[in-house]
Amino acid sequence: MSIDIDTARKVAKLARIRVEEDQLPALATELSGILGFMEQLNEVDVEGVEPMTSVTPMRLRRRADQVTDGNIQSRILKNAPDTREGFFAVPKVVE
After folding, report:
1. 13: pLDDT confidence band, cut at 50, 70 and 90?
2. What span, in angstroms and rounded, lies between the C-alpha atoms of 28 and 36?
3. Distance (Å, rounded) from C-alpha 87 to C-alpha 82?
4. pLDDT per residue over 38-81, tens digit each?
5. Is 11 domain-assigned?
6. Mean of the per-residue pLDDT values for the chain?
7. What range defines the domain where residue 33 resides?
8. Which of 13, 65, 76, 89 could form a disulfide with 82 if both were Cys (CB 3.0 to 4.6 A apart)?
């Protein structure tokens, strides 16, 4: 796919990049090269290839999914300027 100067100008405008008129042909050539590389990648057969998260196969460490309250309510509320009945107290903002 080839990018012309008008398309390069439009892409620069959409990307909010100021490109001088004399640099538009170089930008069009560069964008055409990028699209060419993308077309090459589309030719690669990836059928049956598993996605990778790393170059070395490894399993992520997992912890047991257990719900806890942390038992630190008193430590958290100690930093609050005002508490009532075990909760943060805030000023009323609506009437």
Report:
1. very high
2. 12
3. 9
4. 999 989 998 988 888 778 877 778 888 887 777 888 888 998 99
5. yes
6. 89
7. 5-42
8. 89
Work out how many domains the chain is built from and give that number. Answer: 1
Q: What residue type is 22 in one-letter code?
A: D
Amino acid at 1: M
**CB burial string 50-75: b at 16+ within 10 A, e below:** eeeeeeeeeeeeeeeeeeeeeeeeee
Cα 75 from Cα 69, distance rounded (Å): 13
| Mean pLDDT, rounded, for 15-43 | 94
Residue 79 contacts residue 66 (beta carbons within 8 Å): no
